[in-house]
Amino acid sequence: YKEYYPGGKIKLVGGLNGSLKTGIYREYDTLGNLINGYIYKDDTLISEGMILFDGTYQGVWKSYYPSGKTKSSGTYVNGMPNDFWVYYYANGRKEQEGKFRNNLPFGVWNWYYPNGQLKRMESYNAYGKLEGMVTEYDSLGNEIAKGEYYDGQQEGSWFYQVGDHTEVGAFTVGQPDGVWYHYYKNGTLAFTGVFEEGTPKGKHTWYHQNGIRKQTGKYVGGVPHGVWRTYDEMGEETEEIQYKNGEIYKINGFKVKQIEETN
Question: What is the pTM (predicted TM-score) of this model?
Answer without folding.
Answer: 0.84
